[in-house]
Structure formats: structure tokens, C-alpha cells
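We emphasize that the prediction below concerns an isolated chain of 155 residues; any contacts that depend on oligomerization or on bound cofactors are therefore not represented. The input was used exactly as deposited, without trimming of termini.
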Amino acid sequence: FMPFSTSRFLRVVLPLAICGIGAVCAYGAWYAFTPVPVAALPVKFEVPSGSGIRATARLLVTAGLAVQPLHFEIYARATGRAGAIKAGNYNVTVPTSPAELLDKLTSGTVMQADFRIIEQGDLLLEFPWQPAIVAVQKGDQLPARFLHCKIARLA
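Result of the prediction step, given as a C-alpha cell string:
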């Protein structure tokens, strides 16, 4: 039986702890800045209003972006942006890293919808993420999922 020695304990445990912390930080940096594998580009998805980071991470996987949901959530929480996800319709057209995805999701860089007046008082809304075209009469209310769209008038 050897008596407990604080200096001996620190000489063994401290370097192991520092190496472990360094490995976690290196993996975090690699994860954040390595492009996410994608099934096919472009990837279009909608983040519903009120979605948290966990639901958004699962939604990214469902849409075809192979982020690891738990790692994406940890990254978002570690950077303090987990609560800043903005609802909307997003479009990923180039290979993107988790850091760039999080930037896009927290800045609210959403797809734009186009519309044309087809008759007096009527509006034709064309949404790239929705196969159907929605005709709206003057005074109609848009469904809640369209309220977060930025709409640009076509000439």
C-alpha cells in the first residue's frame, strides 16, 4: 500500500485532463468547419415557428443534410446561439459546414417567394419549396406557414 500523494496525482491526472480537453476542442473545431455530407443539392427545408435546436437538427437530417444532431445541438449551445434559430424556408445550394448552417439559421437568411398580380385584387403566390401554386383573393389570410416568408414583387 502506497500513501496518497497530491503531487504524484497531479503529475498523472493533470496531463491526461489537458490532453482530453485538447482532443474535445480539436474535434469541435473539425466538426464545425468541415462541410456536411449532402444527398443532393440544393436542399430546401422549412423551420417551423417555435422550433428549438433539437427539432431543427433532426429536421436538417430529414431534409438530407447529414449533420449529427447531437453534435450540432452541442455546437449551437456551446456558441450560445441555440435559442436564436429563426423560422422560415431555407435553401442550401453549396456544400456547407455546421458553422455556416448555424449562421444561416440564426441570421434568418430565408428563401424569397415570388408573386404576380393576375387579376385586380388577386395574387398568385409561387413558393419554390411547395409544388402547388397558391391563389389568394384580396382580403384572404395566408396560412401561418407563409407568414415568415419574405415576399418580393416581380416586375
